[in-house]
Design a protein that fits this description.
about 325 residues; alpha/beta; seven-stranded mixed β-sheet; 11 helices
Length: about 325
């Protein structure tokens, strides 16, 4: 993750640059048909699936969501599933063109909801996923145990020199993940007057590896992280207490000086998809699971190295009642 988030975010929010439009499509076999969500043609007779265009945003928790929904859509509904690797904002742009039918894990994004749901009316909400999103600053367990007061943000400057790296310009390093994530961290550092600089690891994988190595080698690392995330079952990172979140404290991005809120993650679909009569829409609307469910599938993919389809099959086979409920 994310993930997040700016006023309406993901495990942070991403603001993909114009460059990040590359799309990787993985088409699963199934019944053929017109593109669901394409405004120029219907998906087929009501009740048939056709092609289901599913955005996959760049964090493994979302990949777990997409793996399971795609597997069920293909094996139980006969859909042709076209999975597209896209940054968050780019996914929303696809609602109006018919290129994207569903985003399965939205971390707030009030700005995008206003633009695409309220103003353009190319998208609608499809309800919550059941996942609770938590974003913040974390340290490895060894560090919190050795220096218990480090989990209070007011003590961070006392340790800033310990976090200094060659990339942090003489300040303490606050490690963030994918540069496309839009986080509040730079504003927080400035507004809390901390002697730190945000440095990007480059990806979720690199961020995880930095925390893993910090725990193994007793290194000083503080950085952005989020839940749900399977990695926390391997290394139980400890959250730093920032000034408590209160409604509206993040209304002006440049002035944010409070913690991230807890996000009730939800699903967004194209308006055309919602009206298409496709059974894939009902699947997305009914899709609901827990942080533990997501973390388990994400672990199968990221740590156990199962393919998305094999990871999904393993979870689906073990949870038939939950899957049946999505298909009602």
């Amino acid at each position: 993750m994310a993930g997040q988030p700016v006023a309406g975010a993901r495990p942070a929010r991403w603001r993909p640059g114009a460059a990040g439009l590359a799309v990787l499509s993985l088409t699963l076999t199934g019944c053929a048909g017109a593109k669901v969500g394409d405004t120029s043609s219907a998906a087929g007779p009501s009740g048939t699936c056709g092609t289901f265009n599913l955005a996959v945003n760049p964090w493994v928790g979302y990949e777990a969501d997409a793996a399971v929904v795609a597997y069920v859509a293909q094996t139980r509904l006969g859909c042709t599933v076209d999975k597209k690797d896209l940054k968050e904002e780019v996914s929303w742009q696809g609602f109006g063109t018919g290129e994207v039918d569903a985003v399965l894990e939205n971390w707030g994004h009030d700005d995008l909801k206003k633009k695409y749901i309220t103003d353009q009316k190319t998208a609608v909400s499809a309800g919550q996923t059941g996942n609770k999103g938590v974003i913040g600053w974390y340290v490895p367990p060894w560090l919190a145990k050795a220096y218990p007061d480090i989990t209070d943000w007011q003590n961070l400057d006392k340790y800033a020199a310990k976090f200094k790296t060659s990339e942090s310009g003489g300040k303490g390093q606050l490690l963030d993940g994918d540069p496309s994530y839009v986080t509040n961290d730079a504003a927080l550092v400035t507004n809390l007057k901390l002697d730190f600089k945000v440095v990007y690891a480059g990806s979720e994988t690199a961020l995880i590896q930095a925390f893993r190595q910090a725990e193994q080698k007793k290194q000083w690392v503080i950085g952005y992280f989020y839940e749900p995330q399977w990695f926390l079952s391997e290394v139980p990172l400890v959250k730093v207490n920032l000034p408590p979140y209160t409604p509206g404290c993040d209304a002006v991005a440049s002035k944010i000086a409070c913690d991230y809120p807890v996000y009730n993650l939800d699903k967004i679909v194209s308006t055309a998809f919602a009206k298409s009569g496709s059974p894939a829409y009902n699947l997305v609307k009914n899709f609901n699971w827990t942080n533990d469910d997501q973390n388990l599938v994400a672990k199968y993919i990221a740590e156990d190295k199962l393919s998305d389809a094999d990871a999904a099959k393993k979870w689906v086979d073990a949870n038939p009642d939950k899957v049946d409920a999505w298909l009602k």
